[in-house]
Write a structure and sequence with these properties.
Layout lengths: L1 E4 L11 H9 L2 E4 L2 H10 L6 E3 L6 H12 L4 E4 L11 H11 L5 E4 L4 H9 L6 E3 L9 H10 L3 E6 L4 H11 L5 E6 L7 E6 H5 L9 E5 L4
Parallel strand pairs: 1-4, 1-5, 2-3, 2-4, 6-7
Antiparallel strand pairs: 7-10, 8-9, 8-10
Helix pairs in contact: 6-7
């Protein structure tokens, strides 16, 4: 069995009781970064062995994981923060497992997700929304933001601290000045900050570039 376990995006108290139970009972925890996950495990006094699995893991690593599942092991997959498979390489592993070992049960252990947290406080319509992940660093970046501007429904995207101000500037060029946006920084953490207003207003706000960001743009509907 493979359990897909959501872990806190910041505040360690946000983990679910079920997630803790799975992390304790699993044979091995597959981690994006074992050092990050071990901080969480240490906090909750969990001693389950860990194994690295991330976007650069090769076929040898996947074969090793498949062998463990073939041996009847219960594996838990976690990312550094949030829900595995959401803008995360976990979905590739899951696809490989279902292709090569269709009898393996994949069980979701739901919990924190930065994009859902941001949408929940945006105040924008979320009966339908578009999640676009991270913008391209270079090629296709302008096209990406034009798609955001043309979207009928609320759009949510991630951006790194290195490019957040650039992203706001690019949105300012393609959005109408009164288009509403919400920018969430460091959600659930000590320095959580939410910037909201028109793109014109938000562009003028003093904003720290430290931390992790979720950008939410109201659609044209």
């Amino acid at each position: 069995m493979l359990s897909i376990v959501a872990t806190p995006i910041g505040n360690l108290g946000d983990i679910t009781l079920r997630a803790l139970e799975i992390l304790k009972s699993a044979d091995i925890i597959l981690c994006e970064d074992t050092r990050v996950t071990k901080k969480l495990l240490s906090y909750y006094e969990i001693t389950t062995p860990t194994m690295s699995y991330h976007q650069h893991s090769d076929e040898k690593k996947i074969s090793e994981i498949l062998s463990l599942l073939a041996d009847g092991k219960h594996l838990a997959l976690v990312t550094d923060a949030g829900t595995p498979g959401i803008s995360d390489p976990g979905n590739k592993l899951i696809a490989d497992i279902h292709t090569q070992m269709p009898d393996v049960s994949t069980v979701p252990i739901p919990g924190p997700s930065a994009v859902i947290a941001a949408l929940s406080i945006s105040g924008f319509p979320t009966d339908k929304f578009i999640f676009m992940g991270f913008p391209p660093h270079k090629k296709g970046r302008e096209t990406f933001f034009r798609e955001v501007a043309e979207a009928k429904y609320t759009v949510a995207l991630y951006e790194s601290n290195h490019r957040i101000l650039k992203a706001i500037g690019q949105l300012g060029k393609v959005l109408e000045g009164d288009k509403e946006v919400v920018i969430c920084r460091e959600l659930t953490k000590k320095f959580e900050t939410v910037y909201r207003g028109s793109i014109e207003e938000v562009s003028k706000m003093e904003m720290s570039e430290k931390g992790e960001f979720v950008v939410v743009v109201r659609g044209s509907r």
